[in-house]
Amino acid sequence: MRLFRNSGIIGIAESALTFALEASRDSHPNEYMGLLRGEDARKLGLEESGTVLTDVLIIPGTESNPVSATVKTSMVPNDMRAAGSVHSHPNGVLRPSDADLATFTKGDVHIIVGAPYERDDWQAFDREGEPIDLPVLDVDPPEEEFFDFTQEDIDRELLPSEEDDRGGWLF
Q1: What CATH number does the domain containing 54 carry?
Q2: Per 3-state DSSP, what percentage of the chain is helix, strand, and coil (rounded to 5)?
Q3: Residue 158 has what pLDDT?
């Protein structure tokens, strides 16, 4: 079951687009490749239902050169918020190649960013490679808290609390 199929993608956060443009510029003359994740629009304070693209994931082990970028599929996280892909075309062409179309089968939106990687140098596509309008939204993506714990939480995990029936410790 796909998380975003019912409500649709309604836009991309300005910060996600800016990141994709900057990452593409930094990768030039090689292609850049990343995956897109989204967040429920209501969680971002919007009153309409749907998904806003909020994050660009960098996949470890991605290999790129001036004409292609390859993601190691074994490194792609199994992420319920996965929504599509973004990659650059150092030649500036904002149309998907046949190779691009072959990768568009997963996800609902695919973005191509072209040199010189300025604010208007991108285009979104559906999975068939047809251009789509994707509004840029001024929203603040939620902060991910990877380290959402305290020293007390660590101590509680490390220190035994009571002995169990087998002579071991329960945590």
Answers
A1: 3.40.140.10
A2: 20, 30, 50
A3: 73
